[in-house]
Amino acid sequence: MESKGENMRKTKIMAWTEKWNEMYTLESEKISRIFTDEMVAIYHIGSTSIPPIGYAKPIIDILVVVKDIEKVNLFYEEMAEIGYSNRGERGIALRRYFTKGGDNRTHHVHIFQDGNNNINKHLDFKEYLLTHPEDAKKYGELKIKLAEEFPDDTHKYQEGKEAFVNRLVAKSTRYKNPRMGGNMKFLLIFGPQAVGKMTVGHELEKITSMKLFHNHQTIELLHPYFGFGPEMWRLSALFRKEIFEQMSISTSAGFMFTYVWAFDLPGDWEFVDQVCDIFESKGHEVCFVELEADIAERLVRNKTPHRLQNKPTKRDVDRSEKDLIQTMEKHRLNSLPGEIKRKNYIRIQTTNRTPEQTAQFIKDRFGL
Fold first, then answer.
1. Which of 69, 86, 212, 299 maximizes the CB count within 10 A of its CB?
2. How far apart are CA 161 and CA 112, in angstroms?
3. How high is the pLDDT of residue 265?
4. Domain-embedded: residue 7
5. Could you give the CA distance from residue 315 to residue 323 in angstroms, rounded to a whole number?
6. What is the CATH number of the domain that holds 74?
7. Are 39 and 30 in contact (CB under 8 A)?
8. SS3 sequence of the chain
9. pLDDT 10s digit of each residue in the chain, 368 long?
10. d(Cα 225, Cα 219) in Å, to the nearest integer?
11. Are residues 195 and 344 in the same domain?
12. 165/259 same-domain check
């Protein structure tokens, strides 16, 4: 059970000190004696291990590499004897996470099995910042700024760092592996309901190596359990974010997502920015495809067999048509001229185009 102050621990930032290396050395010796032959390696990671950052929370992060992650539970009692609390995976699959010091944290221990991708991720991040002091300095400056802004909420402090850290991780990945990262194209296909987004996406899958994730996939998964209630939308947003995050670090050549974007809603703009940042922070190229069609054509497309097969919640056609018209009357579902500033952007009138023609046009325009 978490302590009551888990998300409200104070944000304490200090200037870098050699003392942190000494603290790591002492603690690593204790941990090494516990895991003995099961341990492959142990490392000092995080900001306290990187002097060029200049500032850090005074918490020593330790990375332990073991032969078999399933055997870590054999050492829980010994870890507790030297002051550590077992936190399980704590949101990262196949990790074992321990903390020391309660709400006044002094140490974090991250344990992974040999070969886990997170090991190189941590070590590459450290090496990159040690060899790129300008980026390290910017990171330190951001830490100071956020600590001043959120002195009593370390959770908000961590949230504020996330986008910048993601960009540094992408840089460190490309630094160590020049052939990795930055080669995926993310296609956001948006427009009103029944304009043909999913169908065009399926056609693109046939003529490119891109993968389609249409917006109704999470809806259709969750609707049988939660209807269109708030829990369905909460889980849908959570699933989508996790899928975006995992695809952004995959080796896929390209990824597409369809979305009904209400341009009059600030929340929709924020969502689009967040999705784009996930991919752009990894060095990937983002392309916008806006589709439009006359209302008469959209009403015809709303009841095509292909749409109804892939979207069970649209099979009540009368209800679906009513929702389509009401949404169009309530929200602006296509952009105004000049509203979208992105270089990689096209707008396509699809009323008299087949999905195959539209897909080919998109493929040629963006070199997919």
1. 212
2. 24
3. 96
4. no
5. 13
6. 3.30.460.10
7. no
8. CCCCCCCCCCCCCEECCCHHHHHHHHHHHHHHHHHHHHEEEEEEECHHHCHHHCEECCCEEEEEEECCHHHHHHHHHHHHHCCEEECCCCCCCCEEEEEECCCCCCEEEEEEECCCHHHHHHHHHHHHHHHCHHHHHHHHHHHHHHHHHCCCCHHHHHHHHHHHHHHHHHHHHHHHCCCCCCCCEEEEEECCCCCCHHHHHHHHHHHCCCEEECCHHHHHHHHHHHCCCHHHHHHHHHHHHHHHHHHHCCCCCEEEEEECCCCCCHHHHHHHHHHHHHHHCCCCEEEEEEEECCHHHHHHHCCCHHHHHHCHHHCCHHHHHHHHHHHHHHCCCCCCCCCCCCCCEEEEECCCCCHHHHHHHHHHHHCC
9. 233 344 457 889 999 999 999 999 999 999 999 999 999 999 999 999 999 999 999 999 999 999 999 999 999 999 999 999 999 999 898 999 999 999 899 999 999 999 998 999 999 999 999 999 999 999 999 999 999 999 988 889 998 998 889 888 878 877 776 544 456 899 999 999 999 999 999 999 999 989 999 999 999 999 999 999 999 999 999 999 999 999 988 878 899 999 999 999 999 999 999 999 998 888 889 999 999 999 999 999 999 999 999 999 999 999 999 999 999 999 999 999 999 999 899 999 999 999 999 999 999 999 88
10. 10
11. yes
12. no
Pair (220, 147) in one structural domain: no
Q: Do 340 and 192 share a structural domain?
A: yes
> Is the same domain home to 191 and 131?
no
Cα 64–chain centre separation = 25
Length of the chain counted residue by residue = 368
Report if residue 225 sits inside a domain.
yes
Same domain for 131 and 276?
Answer: no
In this structure, the answer to whether residues 137 and 228 fall within a common structural domain is no
Q: Residue 238 class from Cβ within 10 Å (0-12 exposed, 13-18 middle, 19+ buried)? A: exposed
pTM over 0.70: no
Q: Phi and psi for 195 in degrees, rounded to 5?
A: -85, -15
Instruction: Read off the CATH number of the domain in which 213 is found.
Output: 3.40.50.300
- Residue owning tokens 């997170």: 118
Picking from 339, 368, 367, the residue whose alpha carbon sits closest to that of residue 190 is 339
Is residue 304 one of the residues assigned to a domain? Answer: yes
